[in-house]
Design goal:
Blueprint (H helix, E strand, L loop, with lengths): L1 E2 L11 H14 L9 H20 L8 E4 L2 H12 L5 E5 L4 H12 L4 E5 L6 H8 L4 E7 L11 H10 L3 E5 L11 H4 L3 E5 L11 E5 L38 H17 L1 H20 L4 E4 L7 E6 L4 H10 L2 E2 L1 E3 L4 H7 L6 E5 L6 H15 L1
Parallel strand pairs: 1-11, 3-4, 3-5, 5-6, 6-7
Antiparallel strand pairs: 2-8, 7-8, 9-10, 10-13, 12-13
Helix pairs in contact: 1-8, 2-8, 3-4, 9-12
């Protein structure tokens, strides 16, 4: 099997990630913060350790500002609904995943907020955003790297603009965490949201909401047990407990810690170069096949989007699967991005590379697509 769906979930996982999950489940998977016995304490110590790793990895000054969630979507909803107030205006791009667009649209349709959209493919990203700023603009929310193509936005410049206008900058790092160097303080990122199971090489069931030091506390979206001040009806005022209602996914958090260690051992720059090389090889080979169209080819990275003339995208993906190649067809939870790129009415096929893919995988992809066409 050749796995080329890493934008959804990286596979396979590094061996040390799998070992840590097994170790957690067999040795220290008590309920963290909910008891005084040794297993509870051991789980709490592991979670504290991984908070420190996340904080250091993303350039966050205070590890207590690292909040563990169920996934990136959950983290984005906490940020959007926790920081936006009635009457606020927010700016997003036309390449946002539904994890951003749907909660923003839901709040707008209820009359709570208004939003504006800029074209992420157009030049002068910062200038476009600046033209959309209003007196009541509260936040700018963008995905760092698109999940339908390898378009990557100038995060540091957007951060500078947000600091200048005193707006909250919320970054969706679903596709960039582990592939791009991200430093919250240097880049002016106020809120960073990311999943553990993609470029950070963890497993499903864990996400991250990381807040800049000094940022005002967001409103709570989920309330429940936190292991702190159980006699009070309100959620605690301190982080991370304020936003971590219920039992944390200790095995997934433990896996994340080992995933970050793996990424650091390889090096983010090396990972980025490897993925871009696979992109270029696939671009060159697929482009030589009559009827194949590559979308946004100049944006080279981990994700390549293509169609085959006259053949529905799900048919192409099914053929590739029959050849042992895993891809994903359709609209990838980002219909607006597909609309901008001009893909057909049934979407397109997404190929997304991971650190464990090799050049031979691009050869196999080429042969399989060529076989379908000829």
């Amino acid at each position: 099997m050749i796995y080329l769906d890493n934008a959804a979930t990286t596979f396979p996982k590094p061996p040390q990630v799998l070992r840590e999950v097994q170790k957690c489940l067999s040795s220290y998977c008590g309920n963290p913060g909910r008891g005084s016995h040794r297993l509870s304490n051991a789980a709490g110590e592991k979670i504290f350790e991984v908070r420190e790793q996340v904080s250091d990895f993303f350039g966050c000054e205070n590890s207590e500002n690292v909040v563990f969630t169920l996934n990136d979507t959950y983290a984005l909803n906490l940020a959007i609904k926790g920081f936006l107030h009635p009457g606020d205006h927010v700016i997003i791009s036309n390449f946002e995943h539904n994890s951003v667009y749907r909660p923003i649209r839901a709040m707008a349709d209820c009359g709570l907020i208004k939003f504006s959209i800029f074209d992420a493919l157009a030049p002068d990203t910062v200038g476009q955003i600046e033209k959309l700023i209003r007196k009541n603009t509260r936040a700018v929310i963008v995905n760092h790297t698109s999940n339908v193509c390898s378009l990557t936005l100038p995060v540091e410049k957007i951060g500078e603009l947000c600091r200048k206008h005193k707006m909250i900058f919320i970054l969706d790092a679903a596709q960039s965490a582990g592939h791009e160097e991200i430093h919250m303080e240097k880049m002016g990122i106020d809120v960073l949201c990311a999943p553990a199971h993609k470029g950070l090489m963890g497993i499903q069931g864990c996400g991250l909401l990381v807040l800049r030091e000094g940022l005002s506390l967001p409103e709570t979206v989920i309330e429940g047990g936190s292991g702190v001040n159980s006699l009070e009806w309100q959620m605690p005022d301190q982080l991370p407990e304020r936003l971590e209602a219920g039992t944390l996914p200790t095995p997934a958090i433990a896996a994340l810690g080992e995933g970050i260690k793996f990424v650091r051992s390889v090096g983010t720059d090396e990972i980025k170069k490897h993925l871009a090389n696979l992109f270029v090889l696939s671009l060159d080979r697929l482009s030589s096949i009559n009827g194949v169209k590559i979308y946004a080819p100049k944006h080279q990275g981990s994700t390549l989007l293509f169609t085959v003339s006259g053949i529905p995208s799900d048919t192409v993906a099914a053929h590739l699967d029959s050849c042992g190649i895993c891809t994903r067809s359709g609209f990838h939870c980002c219909p607006s991005g597909h609309n901008v790129l001009g893909t057909p009415e049934d979407g397109a096929v997404r190929v997304s590379f991971g650190i464990f893919n090799r050049e031979s995988d691009t050869d196999a992809l080429y042969r399989a697509v060529k076989e379908l066409v000829f």
